[in-house]
């Protein structure tokens, strides 16, 4: 399993440094944020929204919010070391608007995949270093530079109808899922909301979203868990509120996606204990 060895939360941006060994992998999952990762060493095979990529040393991987993704790390190269940034869409949109790069107050749809882009790679490293060195002024400048590099790498305005046929019906089903994340998912109820049969609902999710409804429902629960943990809610309370009545189930599901336990993710303090990630939260 990939292991997060450093984790910083600075002004709403999360920065993690992760080490992966022995053919470790991330299962299919999604994030509500933009995820931008820079491979420092090693390589991985990446699947994102139905496309396959190879990420090697000094390449950058870009994922848009809610893109379904998975990866497997190449054990033959002795391990992979990478930095991942998790950036809220509102932060990207705000920076782009303030600098007159975009005219709409919504996050763009960045060109997605793996890129051998030296400017983008250096921008990820610069943001990581300013978080590590606790330089707030430099952090803001590095974040603006990163957004500029992402836009220069390619973007477009999101047209949900073209990107996802029947997107309104899909949105209705997803909103129904979100309305009670603690409840057990009911295929019949979801199919009725979407106006399709259970068979077509399952096929629809696999084709459009990239995973079955039950697995996507789990991802929505984990996204909400991360939001509540950032807000300072207790791990046990979050697990219970989202229907994880077995806390070990919650911890294992969370760790598979984030490479760190919910308790460490929520921790607001530096941890200097051996084997623990370094944490900084502002």
UniProtKB/TrEMBL annotation:
Pfam families: AraC_binding, HTH_18. Keywords: Activator, DNA-binding, Transcription, Transcription regulation. This is HTH araC/xylS-type domain-containing protein. Residues 171-268 form the HTH araC/xylS-type domain. InterPro entries: AraC-bd, AraC_XylS_family_regulators, Homeodomain-like_sf, HTH-like, HTH_AraC, HTH_AraC-typ_CS. The lineage of its organism: Bacteria, Pseudomonadati, Pseudomonadota, Betaproteobacteria, Burkholderiales. One of its GO terms (molecular function) is sequence-specific DNA binding. Signal peptide: none annotated. PROSITE patterns: HTH_ARAC_FAMILY_1, HTH_ARAC_FAMILY_2.
């Amino acid at each position: 399993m990939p292991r997060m060895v450093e984790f910083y939360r600075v002004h709403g941006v999360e920065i993690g440094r992760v080490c992966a060994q022995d053919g470790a992998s991330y299962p299919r999952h999604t994030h509500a944020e933009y995820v931008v990762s820079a491979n420092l060493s090693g390589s991985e095979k990446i699947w994102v929204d139905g496309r396959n990529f190879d990420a090697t040393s000094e390449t950058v991987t870009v994922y848009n919010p809610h893109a379904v993704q998975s990866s497997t790390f190449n054990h033959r190269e002795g391990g992979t070391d990478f930095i991942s940034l998790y950036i809220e869409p509102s932060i990207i949109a705000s920076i782009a608007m303030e600098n007159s790069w975009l005219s709409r107050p919504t996050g763009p749809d960045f060109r997605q995949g793996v890129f051998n882009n030296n400017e983008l790679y250096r921008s990820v490293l610069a943001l990581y270093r300013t978080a590590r060195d606790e330089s707030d002024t430099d952090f803001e400048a590095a974040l603006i530079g990163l957004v500029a590099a992402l836009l220069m790498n390619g973007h477009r305005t999101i047209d949900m109808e073209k990107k996802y046929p029947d997107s309104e019906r899909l949105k209705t089903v997803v909103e129904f899922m979100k309305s009670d994340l603690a409840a057990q998912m009911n295929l019949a109820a979801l199919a009725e909301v979407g106006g399709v049969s259970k068979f077509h609902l399952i096929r629809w999710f696999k084709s459009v979203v990239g995973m079955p409804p039950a697995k996507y429902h789990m991802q929505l629960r984990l996204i909400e868990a991360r939001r509540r943990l950032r807000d300072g809610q207790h791990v046990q309370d979050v697990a219970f509120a989202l229907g994880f009545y077995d806390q070990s189930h919650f911890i294992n599901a969370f760790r598979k996606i984030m490479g760190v336990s919910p308790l460490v993710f929520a921790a607001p303090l530096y941890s200097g204990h051996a084997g623990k990630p370094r944490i900084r939260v502002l």
